[in-house]
Amino acid sequence: MAQLNIITLPDRSLRRKSAPVERIDDDLRTFLDRMLEAMYEAPGIGLAAVQVGEPRRIITIDVAHKENEEGTKSPIFLINPEILWRSDDTGIYEEGCLSIPEYYAEVERPAKVRVKYLDRDGREQEMEADGLLATCIQHEVDHLEGKLFIDHLSKLKRDMVVRKFSKAAKEGRKPVF
Ligand code: NI
């Protein structure tokens, strides 16, 4: 099976709002595995289905893969995730996105979140996350609303990034930052 292709700026489909998953079956689990493969291959620590052209509320995450030197895999699949609680205290991480390659910027977000979701077996789960995982969950849940991490930056910076990607796409090259 061909690997899933990750959509990048300035593709407007990244702005689509994702629809809830209604059935968790073997077809969906196969899709989850393909998403995970594309994410590891990229390589990235989080991926939303809309980034591979499927506007459904599905996220794959593996922050351990980056933090852990041995590269141990511990993927998490979040289906129909919903952030139930965000802490008042915030944290700052330098974020990147597989759909905005080579561009990184610091984003401030709530430091902790509690999220409920369905796992790959369709079971309801709840998780409290902090650190990089909390940031990653919020970044990916944003994708489901058509929101990108550059939306958290100033309009000036955001416009600069979009302009660079649009210009590069027209010229058939990659943007340089
Ligand atoms: Ni992203």
If you had to describe this structure to a student in words, what would you say it looks like?
This protein has 177 residues and is α+β, with helices and mostly antiparallel strands. It has one domain (12-171): Peptide Deformylase (Alpha-Beta Complex). It has helices at 26-41, 64-67, 131-144, 155-170, and strands spanning 46-48, 58-61, 76-86, 90-95, 105-110, 112-118, 124-130. The strands form two sheets. Strands 1-2-3-6-7 form a five-stranded antiparallel β-sheet. The chain is globular and about 45 Å long. The termini are far apart. Nickel (II) ion binds at residues 97-99, 139, 143.
Q: Would you count the extended β strands for me?
A: 7
CATH architecture: Alpha-Beta Complex
Q: Give, in spatial order, the strands making up the sheet with the most strands.
A: 1-2-3-6-7
What is Rg? 16 Å
Outline type: globular
**What's the number of domains?**
1
The name of the CATH superfamily reads Peptide deformylase
Percentage of residues in DSSP E strands: 15-25%
The helix/strand class is alpha+beta
Indicate the topology:
Layout: H1 26-41, E1 46-48, E2 58-61, H2 64-67, E3 76-86, E4 90-95, E5 105-110, E6 112-118, E7 124-130, H3 131-144, H4 155-170
Antiparallel strand pairs: 1-2, 2-3, 3-6, 4-5, 6-7
Compact description:
The protein is an alpha+beta fold and 177 residues long. Helix content is 28%, strand content 25%.
Notable traits:
7 strands; Peptide Deformylase; five-stranded antiparallel sheet; globular; 177 residues; alpha+beta; two-stranded antiparallel ribbon
